[in-house]
Amino acid sequence: MLLHVDHVSKMYRMGDTSICALDDVSLEVDEGEYIAIMGQSGSGKSTLLQIASFLDLPTSGKIYLRGKRTETLQETELARLRNKEIGFVFQQFNLLPKTSALENVALPLVYARVSDVERVQRATAMLQQVGLGDRLQNTRAQLSGGQQQRVAIARALINNPSIIFADEPTGNLDSKSGDEIMHMFDDLHKSGKTIILVTHEHDIAQHAKRQIVMRDGHIISDTKKKKKS
Amino acid sequence: MNIINTLHIAIRAIFTNKSRSLLTMLGVIIGVGAVILLIAIGNGLQVYITGQFDSLGVNTITIVPGEVFSSSGGFGSRENQVAAFANNKLRYSDVRDIAKIQEVKAVAPVVLGSTKVTYQNISKSRSVVGTVAEYSIIRNTKTEKGVFFDDADNEGNRRVAVLGWNIADELFKQTDPIGKTIRINGQAFKVHGVAEKKGGGFGGPQFDDYLFIPYSTYVDIFGDTKVSQIIVQARDKEMVQSAITTIKKQLLKRLKVDEFSVFETTEILKVINQILGVLTLGLGGIAAISLVVGGIGIMNIMLVSVTERTREIGLRKALGATPNTILLQFLIESSMLSVFGGMIGVLLAWILALVINNFFPAVVTMSAIALAFGVSAGIGIIFGVAPARRASKLSPIEALRYE
């Protein structure tokens, strides 16, 4: 088992009241799975993604990555985990402004202490892989939404992570670009990557091989597609 | 994450916001510039005054009317000094008395007045000094051309003059002044010599602007029997203090204790130098306040920058930046701002000091540069800590959610 979320709860304080975003949720993820977490806003799907990706800590419960507890780690060690084990794709793309596509993709390698030369080589190769070999020096402002998200995917893949997390990766894209992005995720799945994405769109979720539906902080359904694609 | 990458990120952040960075640095630029420049001027004045020690001669003692030094150690009040000169009780007979003292090698009276000096159609108002031949020995006044007048000139009330370097230059330009006739206070004088250039000014005596005539001639023309000053040279350094004691004893026979002052000539310069030192320190201190204000400016901008770049910080953390990496990134950024500002400030102060040097002595010392630079770099780090800590403590998820 790659990732095990074990009876996790998350409470948020909002002024005097506390909100329960996750209520005793458990989830097991195996290597190579392609999972879509669905639900309406406020269902807890994003919170689950953040906790599963070590961006946030649970109020209670345990998280295991390859059998090792992670929720007890220090922030510095969590940062290292995010750097080596996790690739993020955000709805907002989150590329650094006034910074070339190449440098954006190479950023996780900076924190992984990879040398200058190797960073450029690997980032160039990765951008070629996502079809942006001719846009290495373009900044955020010089790229379309679809291109920005492809740069973001290249950045997520650069450190060869164990799991790729995507939070509404097509939410800010037109349907054509969205389709292109989803095809990239499909291809990544075929190449053996573990992918967990959050979406509220049904047809996006259909790309995944396992659909989890959440409501009010609970998982209400967890179905795996039987047929092989 | 190594230091070079962090440096790179910091420099990049500074250059992405050029005008803002420059404005932020302005506080430090002005602070560092002001500290260095003020210290440079203070130093320059001290160096200049130290140079004056030589032009005043070695082992010399000055006697003036009234009390120069107040009982508290500094100079007496200006009113007292003006009154002292008005009630001047020093006479030429005192010069003769002092000449008999054993420790005294040479003594000369100095009467100072101002007069009109004319050569052909050029006319200037200048200070005229009535004195004797010993003056040139005591004050170490060498002649560039001709000779200083001698005792015979004095005893004979001869109308001869020695010109200060500037006044000779003004009156004669290229012509050789020796043997020429000038008019002082309407009377014809023969030029005997021209003194070497001494330099100076700034409150000290401007020897180059003086004309020197024999004491008795001065009395003859101006009818003034008072002596403005008596200058004395002791036989050697060890005898200066005992000479002062003996001179005081001798003068007390005729005068009251508050009617004259006897001091080692360089004493007055030492006091001025001390006052200048304190003044330089004080001015530097005031300028240092602007450095602190500059530091607060940096802190302010860094706090704004942290808020503005919350999402960037969140993203960097999501991609693997540790809290220490973020702390270092912002600390280096604020230090760079103040170090760059410090460098520009040093450069600016240096250029300004070069310009000022044409009018006023200014000496930029390495220690002043090191001090101002060190303080500015320190300020960047100290005032950068709060914003950098805030950035490093941001929760990645909240930072990413920040709009």
Can you characterise this structure?
The complex is a heterodimer of chains A (229) and B (403). Chain A has 229 residues and is of the alpha/beta class. Chain A has seven helices and ten strands. Chain A has helices at residues 45-52, 75-85, 101-111, 116-129, 145-157, 175-190, 202-205; strands at residues 3-14, 17-29, 34-38, 60-65, 68-69, 86-89, 163-167, 194-198, 210-215, 218-224. Chain A has a six-stranded mixed sheet with strand order 6-7-8-3-9-10, with helices on both faces. Chain A is globular. Chain B is an alpha+beta fold. Chain B is built from 14 helices and ten strands. Chain B has helices spanning 3-16, 18-55, 78-86, 92-99, 134-138, 151-155, 165-172, 215-222, 240-252, 265-308, 310-318, 323-356, 366-393, 396-401; strands at residues 60-65, 104-119, 122-131, 143-146, 160-163, 181-184, 187-195, 211-214, 229-234, 260-264. Chain B has a six-stranded mixed barrel. Chain B is elongated and about 100 Å long. The two termini of chain B are 27 Å apart. The model of chain B has no long low-confidence stretch (mean pLDDT 85). The chains are: A alpha/beta (229), B alpha+beta (403). Chain A binds chain B through residues 50, 55-56, 75-76, 79-80, 82-84, 88, 90, 94, 96, 98-99, 107-108, 110-113, 155, 159, and chain B through 1-2, 5, 12, 16, 311-312, 315-325, 395-397, 400.
Supply the number of helical segments of chain A.
7
Q: What shape does the CA trace of chain B take?
A: elongated
Main sheet characteristics of chain B: 6 strands, mixed, barrel
Instruction: Tell me the helix content of chain A.
Output: 25-40%
Structural class of chain A: alpha/beta
Unreliable stretches of chain B? none
Number of helices of chain B: 14
Instruction: Give the overall pLDDT of chain A as a whole number.
Output: 91
Structural class of chain B: alpha+beta
| Helical content of chain B (DSSP H or I, runs of 4+) | 55-70%
Distance between the termini of chain B: 27 Å
How much of the residues of chain B is beta strand, in percent? 15-25%
> End-to-end distance of chain A, in Å?
22 Å
